[in-house]
Amino acid sequence: MKGIIFNLVEEVVANDHGPDAWDDILAAAGVEGAYTAVGSYSDDELLAIVSAAATATGASEDDILRHVGRYSIPPLAQRYPEFFTLHRGLRTFLPSLNSVIHPEVRKLYPGAQPPHFTITDDADGGILMEYHSQRSMCRLAEGLTLGAADHYGEPVTVTHPQCTREGASHCLLRVDLG
Ligand code: HEM
């Protein structure tokens, strides 16, 4: 996983609990913690940090990933405003993950392997997001989607009707607007 994701986790933790909390989490996770945005680090290292954060806060690892995703959107929107200003809401922003944002990420961060989403409109107005990734970070995807909804001021419900953890071939997220 690219260092920028670790940088975002640090930003969220430091915002919530102060910079010392980040040092404590790194120590508990047994990792060194010098992450450059374009560097590549093991997914296990990220998961060790998430696990240490869960132990420190009493939250579940899933909740930590969701939380980190959600509150990573403001710093991402600050770093990459053009990805967001092109859109008025999730209905066009979400498909741009595949057509613009993550393809751009591959250029900006050589070696990045962002997930692929197949996005369709459901007959009853919801947005369906098939999540395809070698990683199982569907909770991070849920959080990022919630953060993008916050960004556009759109009230949404995000559900996870299908998950690889329950044996499905891929995860499915469902976004209901309004
Ligand atoms: C709703 C919005 C977004 C969703 C749902 C989303 C989803 C994800 C997820 C789940 C991952 C973890 C890797 C994986 O699961 O395979 C990821 C990786 C990544 N995303 Fe996104 N993303 C969003 C927006 C953005 C934006 C706005 C950027 C801006 C540059 C971005 C840049 C990245 C980068 C750099 C990685 C790391 C890839 C790697 O290390 O290989 N994402 N994304």
Give structural attributes:
178 residues; alpha+beta; H-NOX domain; single chain; binds protoporphyrin IX containing FE
**What overall geometry do the principal axes of the alpha carbons give?**
globular
CATH level 4 superfamily of the largest domain = H-NOX domain
Q: How many DSSP-defined strands?
A: 4
Rg, Å, rounded: 16 Å
Major sheet strand order = 1-2-4-3
Proportion of residues in β-strands? 5-15%
Q: H/E series, N to C?
A: HHHHHHEEHEE
Tell me the name of the CATH class of the largest domain.
Alpha Beta
Heteromolecules bound: protoporphyrin IX containing FE
Number of helices, counting only DSSP H or I runs of 4 residues or more: 7
CA(first)-CA(last) distance: 33 Å
How many discrete structural domains? Answer: 2
CATH topology of the largest domain: H-NOX domain
Structural class: alpha+beta
CATH architecture label name of the largest domain = Alpha-Beta Complex
Poorly predicted regions are none
Question: If you average the pLDDT, what whole number results?
Answer: 97
